[in-house]
Amino acid sequence: MKWLVSLVGAGLVMLTLRDLFHTLWHPTRHGGLSRLVMTALWRFARRLRGRRRVVGLVGPLAMVTVVGMWTSTVVLGWAVVYWPHMPGAFAFSPGSEAAQAPALLDSLYLSLVTVATLGLGDIAPGDAWLRMVSPLEALVGFALLTATVSWVLEIFPALTRRRVLAVRLALLRDADPAPRQIDCTAGALLLDSLATDVARVRIDFTQYAEAYYFHDGEDHSSLAAMVGYAATLARRGQAARRPEVCLAGEVLAGALEDLATILDQRFLHTGGTAADVFAAYAADHGRSLAQP
């Protein structure tokens, strides 16, 4: 029975590590816990008054919540591993009153101390297998801290790329280049660079799906609001007479179609055209598509 309880605790730890791996390092980045938490918080925020202020906190709050749940589950899982063997399989420092506390409380305390790599030493594993298992929890705690830092460092550059593209589109919309200004070598280079930026954002939504739940602020820095103007520029490029401009317009249109496919498959599920998806994307972020 003791070993069965310990196996349940080990299972909790393994489930957490699996979710962490799929959220941060798996090529598809399909993390179960993180996506569920972020989707739930996003939908809840959309129903509240003062929506923009609340939605702006969803991304950071969801990341903190996910990391907290990972940490809590790891601590609880390892405590369940220790619990059936407490206090007999552990050594207590002289004068310590820990052995008089409930076994579950001691197990939680030991698990917290170990995962935080504090190593206070007032409770130490006595059995050989526990002396091997306990340092593994410290390694998991260190890996969890490292993963959290790397997650933050990965998300915010992806948000920057998305917002830079939105600001570029906003500036272009304000300049409102005429078709003849697009139909030149500079126009082809412009459309090609926009297609590259759109492709980067498409990859970001694949690799860092959590970035979808971050609010972009004002309309001019919101891709949800400005992406429609990119489609307008693509159409102008496709209608141009110069072959290089026409090709660049086709490439931009293809990049936008690919972006719409990813948004629809992963977040919106409209089953509609690219225009329908971008309209749903804008609405989901509390925006309306920018008009030329």
TrEMBL record:
Chain ranges of the Potassium channel domain: 85-154
The name this protein goes by in its record: Potassium channel family protein
InterPro entries linked: K_chnl_dom
Native species: Streptomyces heilongjiangensis
Stretches that traverse the bilayer: 57-83, 138-159
Protein keywords: Ion channel, Ion transport, Membrane, Transmembrane, Transmembrane helix, Transport
GO biological process entries: monoatomic ion transmembrane transport
